[in-house]
Amino acid sequence: MSDGWITRGQYEQKIEQLTELLRESKRGHHHCDDSWYCCPKCDSPDHPGGPPSLGAERTGKDECDCGADEWNAKVDAALGETT
Fold it and tell me: Which ranges of 1-83 does DSSP label H, i.e. alpha helix?
C-alpha cells in the first residue's frame, strides 16, 4: 500500500509525461473543405499558391479566429514553466 509519496524518479517521469502531453496538445488552425470557413491563418496544402484561406477575406483580417493561437500560447507558457 502506498503512503501517497513518490520518489524523485517517479516525479520526474510524471513531469516528462505531462510535458509530452502538452506538446502533443498544440492545435493547427481550423480547416474546412470550403476555404471560406477556414480560420484566416489556416495554411492548408489545399490552397497552394493563393492566400492561406478565404477566411481572411470573410473576416477582413488575417488573425486567428479558431482559438488555436490562444490555446498554443497557453501551451507554450506552460511548457516554459516545465523546462
Answer: 8-24, 55-59, 68-82
